[in-house]
Amino acid sequence: xxxxxxxxxxxxxxxxxxxxxxxxxxxxxxxxxxxxxxxxxxxxxxxxxxxxxxxxxxxxxxxxxxxxxxxxxxxxxxxxxxxxxxxxxxxxxxxxxxxxxxxxxxxxxxxxxxxxxxxxxxxxxxxxxxxxxxxxxxxxxxxxxxxxxxxxxxxxxxxxxxxxxxxxxxxxxxxxxxxxxxxxxxxxxxxxxxxxxxxxxxxxxxxxxxxxxxxxxxxxxxxxxxxxxxx
Length: 231
Known about the structure:
The chain is α/β, with parallel strands linked by helices. About 50% of the residues lie in helices and about 15% in strands.
């Protein structure tokens, strides 16, 4: 495989940056700041409700039914209202707080730094993410990983989101790579793996939970250090 690929396209959230752990810490701070325990004393209930609402809104955002602004401003407001707190203004403020709080969280998956350092010696590394442009680079900087990546490509830069073929074509234009000398590494079958398939490129599914595949990645790993053996 070392002779086949020159470029590695990495997803960021849930692949390198531990989204669940970092997000939960930020949301706990928001829960405390707005004294939501008065409306819902069980943080886990609050968190799970937020998570479901956020996922639903992200799906609408991915298919273009809502804007980034609407997603950011309503996910907490809708969660607050579920518990009888009509906090529209507070929800908007919570959305702003979440971006600022979460970007400073630095939990990565085990072995992330060592693996990326190792791979950077043999490949050109890039980030390809559907996440918000203003926070993705800051996450990498705060986790001391930015210097390993030549390019950070967001869906906002491209004007399209994974799995759309056009975001991969944009990535190839930005990096000088092509679908023959590049492999996509990501956790999300519906965006990373399906997107790589749309681009007719190889993929590695990061699958720490050992879920049964729905798509057909070329390879899969449960831990990031496995990449050093595979690549």
